[in-house]
Amino acid sequence: MRYEGTIYRPPSEAYSLLIQATIGCPHNKCTFCPLYKSTKFRIRSVEEIKEDLVAARDYYGESIKSIFFPDGNTIVMKTEHLCQIFAYAHTVFPYLERITIYGSARFVNRKSLEDLRQLKDYGLSRIHTGMESGDDLTLERIKKGTDSAGIISAGLKLKEAGIEISEYYLTGIGGLERTKEHAINSARVLSSFSPDFIRIRTFVPMPNTPLYAEYQSGQFKLLSPHQALHEVRTLVENLDCKDSLLLSDHIANYCDANGRLPEDRDSVLQEIDETLKLDESQFRPAHMSRL
Questions:
Q1: Average pLDDT of the chain to the nearest whole number
Q2: What does pTM read for this prediction?
Q3: Is 194 inside a domain boundary?
Q4: Residue 127 maps to which CATH number?
Q5: Which of 43, 72, 190, 219 is least enclosed by beta carbons within 10 angstroms?
Q6: Residue 1 domain flag
Q7: Rounded distance between C-alpha atoms, residue 173 and residue 204, angstroms
C-alpha cells in the first residue's frame, strides 16, 4: 500500500483497512482545520487504488471486513470510479462487510439521489460527515462551504439512499458568543434527518490555522469545560431525533455522554449533570487536547 502525507481516519474506523483514494481535501478552507493545509488536492487513479487493494490482500489476507477510503471528501470522486473501486474491493476481499468514506454536505449534494443509490448498491455503507454546526452564522465564520439548508438536504438525500450517516458536532466552535445558538440550531438541523450517529467533538484551537490566530488575539473566546458541558446539554435537550446514536467518542471531550435518542435522553443528561459537579480544575485546559 502507498500512502502520501499523514492519514486521518475517524476513531470508529480504528480496525478498518485504510486505502488512500484521494490526497488532501478539495475544500480545505475551514478555519479550524489544520489537516491538509500543506497538501495539494488530487484524486488517485482507479488503477492505483486497485493495486493497493491487491497489495493489502497479499499482506493481510482475504479476511478484511471493513475498509475506509481516506482522505478528506472522497465522495467528490466520480460515481463511476467509486463504484469500480467498491466492486473491486468486494472481489479482492470476499468477506468485506463495510465500506466507508468522508463526505461533507457540500460534496454529497453534488451527487444525485440516483448516484447515491448506486453507491449504496455497490457497497458504500456509511459516510462520515463533519457538519460541525447547524448555525448559519457559525458555518459562515468557519468557512465550512455550506449552510444549514445544505446540511439538511445532504442528510435527507443520504437517508433516502439508505447510506448510514455519521454526523459530527463540534462543541465550542461557535465560541462563547454563539454557544446557545450553535447548540440549538445544530439540534434543529440534526433533528430534521435523524443521522444514524451523532458524534460529539470538542473544539481545541490548533496552531497554524486562522481560528487559532483569532483565539490568540482574543477575538475568539473558548468555552471553559463547564461551559462546553452546558452547550452539549443544550444540544441534547433540543434534539428531536428518531433512533440516532449519540456518541462522545473522542479524547478531547469532557464527558462520556452516550446513548440512543430519544429513549436514553434522560440518562445522557444525568451523566452530563454529574460531570458538571466536578470542579473545573479536574478537566484538561480548554486550549489543550489530551493527545
A1: 95
A2: 0.94
A3: yes
A4: 3.20.20.70
A5: 219
A6: no
A7: 9
